[in-house]
User: What shape does this take?
Amino acid sequence: MITKEASDLGIIPALRPAAGVRHSKYARLIARAKEVAAAISLVVHPCDETSLRGAAEAAEAGIIVPILVGPAAKILAVARGCGIDIARYKIVDGPHSEAAAAKAVELIRSSGGELFMKGSLHTDELMHAVSSTAAGLRTARRISHVFIMDVPTYSETLFITDAAINIFPNLEDKRDIVQNAIDLFQHISLGTPRVAILSAVETVTPKIPSTIDAAALCKMAERGQITGGILDGPLAFDNAVDPEAARIKGIKSEVAGRAQILVVPDLEAGNMLAKNLTFLAKADAAGVALGARVPIILTSRADSVRARMASCAAAVLYAHARRSTSPLPPA
Assistant: This one.
């Protein structure tokens, strides 16, 4: 049993009561996406029930207009076997997952689809096609992934980045990772985000390089190299999300204890943090990759249909915001 005295002494962060009903944040996100125009979405290799049903339900909700890219016979067989009606959706045949990813990239470049959605193929296969220098979807911005977490015990929608693409990002990479997350936060109408640059400690320590990166990122924000968010770091996880932990450590900032975006030092830390929240705090994890010509709905094959729907909603809102303010960035 955890005592109040242990919490007060800073041995563990003070526990807080449940801050909302599970799925409520995703419900609001999906509702907002239904208010904007549906986005043409290239769904790559939707050859299992979860990926095909996720695309079909997002289409039925009026969020996306899917184009299914992959082995047509297999897609139709999955639809029949699982009772999913895809009669209204265009299918572009591709013999296997690698060919489907390449074909979907080609369609984005030639016909202007607005979203790229991962089906039942490996992330590496998809990103290889996206990242191709000659024929991919790269821009000058580093591609990075954002987990959009609905944590029942946390009042805020919580972003974690990057926990899926960049393994050991350097400072320049982290600048793009932070900017991508801020852009997504703003484009889905969540306001100006409070961004915590995480490390193991909250002081700049030469022996821990991530603390130096954190301090540099904050200075970059002060000088206009990162825009649109309020940054603080380095912050340890507890004093980034728990006001009492921040108070005990004497940290006073707009971000400490109230972070909305958590920027992790590397992929391993981010992946473990996101999965800890998923399995121990019963959080839901949607996911979008940014920095390419179009947002990429990059979910796990084990994700629920609801998480896929929330990922679609975030990507659609992002695409809508870009459609309204500026053209796609150059290839």
